[in-house]
Design a protein that fits this description.
By secondary structure, the chain is of the alpha/beta class. It is 48% helix and 13% strand. The chain has 2 domains: 6-131, 3-Layer(aba) Sandwich (Oxidized Rhodanese, domain 1), CATH 3.40.250; 143-347, Rossmann fold. The strands form 3 sheets. Strands 1-5-4-2-3 form a 5-stranded parallel sheet, covered by helices on one side. The longest helix is centred in the first third of the chain and has 23 residues, at 59-81. The N and C termini lie far apart (63 Å). The relative contact order is 0.11.
Length: 356
């Protein structure tokens, strides 16, 4: 007798012990449900071949070949990943749209005796839900935006606020990018796909308490290769703002500290600057590339801040329509100074009144 397959919805995920993504590794890498593990019933090449057979010879031939692969892959996963699972284990399986791949996997697990279920709508249904959440969640939160030109210590202030117990959303951490032409992370890891960024953002937004302020750094609509959803960008533009005012020398020192790793490969740094062609004169760009190749980072970043980053920030400020809560003058960016500023902001003794 075939074990009956339970079909569950997204709001029931919490009742299951393990979330299994049965899609191919490439699909999983592009995006997946938070906390899911990848146990593909078809690998990337097998999925490609089955798809080609389906188009060229029809469904039966594709299923005949694919079915054998699916059976072998499920058996391998059971032997490798599930030998320690007790009889009470409850796995939830999904694929692209809750079809044959996850259905086959879940049925086999139920035949063994585990209370396996299949996610209704699969990843496709989940993706629709994410898009809906990105439209609704940003406007439900009490945003407080920290602004300031490059090198003002905005990220460090957010970290200090978090240490004080404030709610903080670090968009650059989610995007794995600092949001500028030189903003790639030093570990060399790529940014998430747009879909993976959306998934991480929804997961973070749902964890926030709407009754408490949420501190966030002022960002443009695009952070490297990923983009903020429209509702999020609008919410941040309209949110109350705190403006940081920091001496140029302190800002430059912070930038040199954060971007020192770029000096390890002078030629790569010079090539990164090519992204400014058309935005700066050929003479200026050539001078900056010469400084990059010579390791003259102090001169390079001082001019980048003066001629590129600061003008960009001033233009971005013109789009912000939210009220200015206060300007915070920081004489330096030492940890003690930032901790003191975070304490004042968190307690809202100097800036925020009840009307916001």
């Amino acid at each position: 007798m075939v074990a009956k397959l339970d079909i569950v919805t997204l709001d029931q995920i919490g009742a299951y012990d393990t979330l299994i993504d049965a899609r191919s590794p490439a699909e999983f890498a592009l995006d997946h449900l938070p906390g899911a593990i990848n146990l593909p019933v078809l690998d990337d090449e097998q999925r490609r071949i089955v798809g080609t057979l389906y188009k060229q010879t029809g469904a039966f031939e594709a299923r005949r070949i694919g079915g054998a692969w699916v059976a072998r892959n499920i058996a391998r996963h059971i032997e490798a990943a599930m030998q320690d699972k007790p009889a009470s284990w409850r796995p939830l399986v999904y694929c692209w749209r809750g079809g044959q791949r996850s259905g086959a996997f879940a049925l086999w697990l139920r035949q063994i005796g585990w209370a396996a279920a299949q996610l209704h709508g699969g990843y496709k249904g989940y993706r629709r839900w994410v898009v809906e959440q990105l439209k609704a969640l940003p406007s439900a939160l009490r945003w407080r935006v920290v602004g300031g030109p490059t090198g003002s210590g905005k990220t460090r202030l957010l970290q200090a606020l978090m240490a004080r117990g404030a709610q903080v959303l670090d968009l650059e951490a989610l995007a794995r990018h600092r949001g500028s032409i030189l903003g790639a992370w030093p570990d060399g890891k790529p940014q998430p796909s747009q879909k993976a960024f959306d998934t991480a953002l929804v997961d973070a937004l749902r964890r926030l308490d709407p009754a408490r302020p949420v501190w966030v750094e002022a960002e443009s609509r695009k952070i490297g290769t990923v983009q903020l959803p429209e509702a999020m960008a609008v919410a941040l533009q309209r949110a109350p703002r705190v403006q940081l005012e920091v001496p140029f020398a302190a800002r430059l020192a912070l930038v040199l500290q954060d971007y020192a790793w770029l000096g390890r490969d002078p030629e790569a740094l010079a090539q990164r600057l090519q992204a400014l062609r058309g935005l700066q004169s050929n003479e200026t760009l050539a001078r900056w590339q010469t400084w990059a190749r010579a390791g003259r980072l102090t001169e390079l970043f001082a001019e980048l801040m003066t001629h590129h980053y600061d003008p960009l920030y001033r233009r971005a400020q013109s789009y912000a329509s939210g009220p200015l809560l206060c300007s915070v003058a920081l004489p330096d960016l030492d940890p003690t100074t930032l901790t003191r500023a975070a304490a004042d902001l968190h307690q809202q003794v100097a800036c925020e009144s009840d009307r916001w």
